[in-house]
């Protein structure tokens, strides 16, 4: 039975050979023809491939001049502002993927329902239904993650997950067994539907694209370690949390973390939608203090929109790398506009 779990992994390993190599990787190795051939596989026309390859190569020269190609990668991850901001955003989304509370339902749903007086068949059926919805709910992310953006999906879904877990937590107070089963099931099912296109797929997608090539392997390793470390923390502490504060208190605790996740996303997570790897350098090179101010302005914008005020959204700050006549130039700061 355990051996059957190797089948999907073997399929993924086989399909990996069909993926084209990164053009940036080839260019760093001086293999420009292979870089061009690889880019052609990822663009509609050869003209587009040549354009993007030229742009990538020019900005790689800027990157090399700015941070160099040698040195301790771990030191670069913390000392270079662009890398540090990317790591901070990546760690936020990976941490919140666990502390949104999804795995207390995934791991303990059947046990929770049995503890609250549900029958074993009912508990297993509810748990199976939750897992099915969690899987089906991820399908819309294929279309929404690039349409709405990673950051926006998180900002939309965290408050909704807060509401779902809060509903679930207080549903345990209903004296009627039938009403309790119905309300808890509705709350957890709605949570799965909201989680799946947001905090489910976004963190891994986001973390894989925010780092520059030279520190990506290290950054992604740290991000993956973070999510599994807090997965362990959550799985280890939840039984004690439920015993001390009951199911209502435990679910309320993780509901509150979803509000924390909303503000962490607002102030520290930057949008990567429709950005090339080179353009992301400009996104993450903006100082954290300046982006925090943008988050405050955006929060004000959300508040005024809720009051039905007709206001323009603030523009995210960006530091643009300018290329002129084929020669990379120094970065030029582009200030954010105020709403």
TrEMBL record:
Pfam family, one: Sugar_tr
Keyword field contains Membrane: yes
The protein's name in its UniProt record: Major facilitator superfamily (MFS) profile domain-containing protein
Major facilitator superfamily (MFS) profile domain boundaries: 1-273
Single GO cellular component term: membrane
Gene3D superfamilies, A to Z: MFS general substrate transporter like domains
Species of provenance: Verticillium longisporum
GO biological process per UniProt: myo-inositol transport; polyol transmembrane transport
Entry's transmembrane regions: 6-23, 86-108, 128-146, 153-174, 186-206, 218-238, 250-269
Source species, domain of life: Eukaryota
PROSITE patterns according to UniProt: MFS, SUGAR_TRANSPORT_1
Entry's localization field: Membrane
A GO term for molecular function: transmembrane transporter activity
Main subcellular location of this protein, as a coarse class: membrane
Keywords, alphabetical: Membrane, Transmembrane, Transmembrane helix, Transport
Membrane topology, from the record: Multi-pass membrane protein
Family (UniProt): Belongs to the major facilitator superfamily. Sugar transporter (TC 2.A.1.1) family.
């Amino acid at each position: 039975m355990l051996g059957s779990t190797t089948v999907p992994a073997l399929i993924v390993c086989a399909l990996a050979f069909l993926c084209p190599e990164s053009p940036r990787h080839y260019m760093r190795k001086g293999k420009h023809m292979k870089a061009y051939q690889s880019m052609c596989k990822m663009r509609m026309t050869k003209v587009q491939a040549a354009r993007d390859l030229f742009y990538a190569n020019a900005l790689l020269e800027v990157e090399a001049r700015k941070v160099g190609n040698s040195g301790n990668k771990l030191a670069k991850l913390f000392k270079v502002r662009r890398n540090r901001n990317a790591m901070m955003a990546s760690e936020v989304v990976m941490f919140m993927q666990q502390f949104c509370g999804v795995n207390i339902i995934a791991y303990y749903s059947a046990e929770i329902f049995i503890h609250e007086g549900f029958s074993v068949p009912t508990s297993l059926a509810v748990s199976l239904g939750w897992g099915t919805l969690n899987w089906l709910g991820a399908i819309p992310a294929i279309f929404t993650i690039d349409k709405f953006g990673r950051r926006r999906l998180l900002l939309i879904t965290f408050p909704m997950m807060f509401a779902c877990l809060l509903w679930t937590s207080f549903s345990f107070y209903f004296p009627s067994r039938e009403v309790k089963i119905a309300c808890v099931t509705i709350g957890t099912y709605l949570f799965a539907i909201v989680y799946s296109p947001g905090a489910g797929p976004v963190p891994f997608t986001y973390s894989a694209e925010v780092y520059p090539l030279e520190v990506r392997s290290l950054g992604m390793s740290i991000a993956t370690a973070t999510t599994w470390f807090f997965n362990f923390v959550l799985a280890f502490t939840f039984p004690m949390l439920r015993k001390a504060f009951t199911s209502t208190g435990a679910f309320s605790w993780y509901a509150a973390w979803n509000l924390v996740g909303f503000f962490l996303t607002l102030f520290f997570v930057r949008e990567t939608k429709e950005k090339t790897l080179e353009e992301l350098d400009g996104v993450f090179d903006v100082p954290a203090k300046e982006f925090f101010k943008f988050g405050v302005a955006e929060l004000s914008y959300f508040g005024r929109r809720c009051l039905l005020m007709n206001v323009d959204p603030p523009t995210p700050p960006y530091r643009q790398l300018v290329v002129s006549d084929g020669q990379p130039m120094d970065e030029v700061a582009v200030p954010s506009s105020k709403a």
